[in-house]
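S1.2 Input.
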Amino acid sequence: MFANLNGTHLLILVAVLLLLFGATKLPALARGVGQSVRILRSEVRAADDEGEGAKASGSSAAAVVAPRAAEGPTPRE
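S1.3 Output.
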């Protein structure tokens, strides 16, 4: 999808972002995206660690998932 993206395309993309959000809001937007990516990475690592722990102890993945399903739906924010 991004294989044909070159320098000109990036400049146009930055110009459009500047027009849409303004120069003052871009740092806050970038900070929010960075925090979201950081949170996503930590959650993926935690899920991988949980999976490895379940494999090491010999329990099945269904046993790990079953208690969460029994708790019911989580409230939406």
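S1.4 Remarks. The chain is about 75% helix and 0% strand.
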